[in-house]
Specification:
This protein is mainly beta and 54 residues long. The protein is 15% helix and 41% strand.
């Protein structure tokens, strides 16, 4: 899944991003790079689990 610039910055700082996704782990990208792995929760947030880009 792709994040907008402001969402990507939140994700890279370890903060959850509001997203309605199927629960489970997802690859997270910004415009052109892999940011890491996030876990979607049933409450509608994407929690960072493993960051790759800095």
């Amino acid at each position: 899944m792709r994040l907008e610039a402001a969402e990507a910055l939140r994700f890279l700082h370890g903060n959850p991003v509001p997203r309605e996704l199927a629960p489970g782990r997802h690859r997270v990208y910004d415009a052109d790079r892999l940011l890491g792995i996030g876990e979607a929760t049933a409450t509608g947030t994407l929690q960072p689990r493993r960051l790759i880009a800095a």
